Structure prediction request, 303 residues.
Amino acid sequence: MPPPASAAQSHPDAFLAMLAAERGAAANTLAAYARDLAGAAELIGPLAVADKADLARLALHWADLAPASVARKASALRQFYLFLVDEGVRADDPSAALPRPATRRPLPRILNHDEVARLFTRAEEEATVVTPQPVRLLALLEMLYGSGLRATELVSLPLNAVPRDAPFVTVTGKGSKQRMVPVSRRARTALTAWLQLRPAATRHLFPGRAGSQAGHLTRIRLFQLIRELAARADIDPARVSPHVLRHAFATHLLEGGADLRVLQTLLGHADIATTQIYTHVDAARLVALVNERHPLATRRPGP
Prediction:
């Protein structure tokens, strides 16, 4: 039996609180769930009292959306109703009526080695002028491509995450899970130069503007800085973002022979299936490997 309508309004808030407390969901994740739940409630009324017929109507409202968007919204609602059942708020789970679109995970956009080299060449040239902004940009670029950090992980790094005596940085990823990520010699050099110029009296490695609510450089500003650099390096800015550099990090490591399990750890993926998406770009290298290294590769074909 669904709860009375008068009590239904508070359940989405309780669900979001559970995601934050028990699963360590990030602020961006919570905001996305809140939008999806609020959007569905606007279409069919209070979600906690909705029945299967109500949820089935959502398919019509979502007809013009991309399959991935429909899948995301439906997933949020399924988790919400599982929460209501677990909490004893409802005895039934109506989410079976939600649409299940067939989605195909998009392949990651990447940059090739030449494009990455052009980005670094431009950033290094600009950083020869020892002023804070270009030196900071080079350090950000080194960490994105050299360590494969997510944008949020990078901008929110506290100063004490970078130890003085070890080539690692402690990263807090999705679900508040921590992992140790190697920092290359190049990145350590760039970070050392940045530490000599960064403003004092702040706990973040990459501080934001004075008075910034977050206290650190924002993801949006990082996105802008990387795209502006791409334009100056004569690369289409639409093809470049912090996440594209993370994809390039993963793809180029695989090309160099990195183990998939090691890559999963470096990227902070909970499921190796997420990491396996990077193997698609290695197909050409595998074909070349078979053609060059297989015992029959040197044998002339018959007539």
